[in-house]
Design a protein that fits this description.
Radius of gyration: 19 Å
Shape: globular
Oligomer: single chain
CATH topology of one domain: Butyryl-CoA Dehydrogenase, subunit A, domain 3
Number of strands: 9
CATH architecture of one domain: Up-down Bundle
Distance between the termini: 9 Å
Largest sheet: 7 strands, mixed
């Protein structure tokens, strides 16, 4: 198994990074966070669809590009790094679900950006509103409903709209454990992007901020915290793409590896963002700095499928694993 990125994967990453830097820099993301309504706005969501992001891993006959989970992970890594708003994760999961068991016209609407999907967990809807699809993902599959009633709730992350779940009509139920496996892979990729982004923030600050006449990067505490971020990114990268390739191959151990990647990434991203704020000092808590936004997004991603402890079930369930 070759975990090195292919030329195509590097092109996907570069194209996504360039588009996000030009069209959705953090300054623009902050403007979206401060406004009311859907995140992102309709024009930005349409641009996501035009870039092919919702159909990257879908079959070509359903409007997709016919690529795999590894290519999707490459994209989601960049989305996490840029704090890109919007229910891209839920919409991609919904598109895969509809490709497998839903009406073709709904699949096309999701891929084309004409419909959105949201995640629901613990009575909350993340980035959804009336008329959207809502996905309840569990160990055995996913339930897809259409939301027709919800009430706004106070979000932890200003880039993630949260609402109390009201009324929703169930459209279909798909019993397929690979839905949660793909969800773990894509959420892990976003968390990896967060780890890498905050590590870059810490390194840049440690090089320029001086204390007692020395750059703070020379101090052991700062040095060790930043090194831990780099080690976390390295560990998550290997586990993530291993899990993605196993998912594409239909291997029975894919759920284990995807859950392991998600646990390492969720804890690592939260710790890395927290340590970055510690490295920055008081400025990291201020609205003007981006560090706290990464911490809040990491918290949302670590809980978007329910309490993180629930993921341990996939780690502990198998009695035996064989590693190739």
């Amino acid at each position: 198994m070759n975990l090195q990125p292919s030329a195509l994967q590097n092109e996907i990453a570069a194209a996504a990074r360039e588009w996000l830097a030009k069209q959705l820099p953090l300054a623009r993301v902050r403007e979206l966070a401060a406004g009311a309504g859907a995140l992102p706005d309709e024009a930005t969501w349409a641009a996501y669809a035009e870039s092919g992001w919702f159909g990257l891993g879908l079959d070509q006959q359903h409007g997709g590009l016919g690529l795999g989970a590894a290519e999707e992970a490459v994209l989601f890594r960049e989305l996490g790094r840029a704090l890109a708003p919007g229910p891209v994760l839920a919409t991609v999961l919904a598109a895969h679900t509809m490709q497998a068991a839903g009406p073709a016209e709904l699949t096309a609407a999701l891929v084309g950006g004409r419909r959105r999907a949201a995640l629901t967990t613990q009575g909350r809807v993340l980035d959804g509103g009336p008329g959207d699809l809502v996905l309840a993902v569990d160990e055995s599959g996913v339930t897809v409903s259409q939301l027709h009633d919800c009430s706004p709730a106070e979000p932890v992350d200003p880039l993630t709209r949260v609402a109390h779940l009201g009324g929703a009509d169930v459209l279909l139920r798909v019993d397929d454990p690979s839905v949660l496996t793909r969800a773990h892979v894509l959420a892990t990729a976003q968390l990896l992007g967060i780890v890498e982004a905050v590590c870059d923030i810490s390194v840049a600050y440690a090089r320029t901020r001086t204390q007692f006449g020395k750059p703070i990067g020379s101090f052991q505490a700062v040095k060790h915290r930043t090194a831990d971020m780099a080690v976390t990114a390295y560990a998550v990268t290997g586990q993530l793409f291993h899990a993605a390739l196993l998912l594409d191959a239909g291997r029975p151990d894919a759920p284990f590896h995807a859950a392991a990647a998600y646990l390492v990434a969720a804890r690592g991203a939260t710790r890395a963002a927290t340590d970055t704020i510690q490295n920055l000092g008081g400025i990291g808590f201020t609205w003007e700095h981006d560090a706290h936004l990464y911490l809040k997004r990491a918290h949302v991603l670590a809980n978007c499928f329910g309490p993180l402890r629930g993921t341990h079930a996939r780690i502990m369930a198998p009695e035996r694993h064989e590693f190739a």
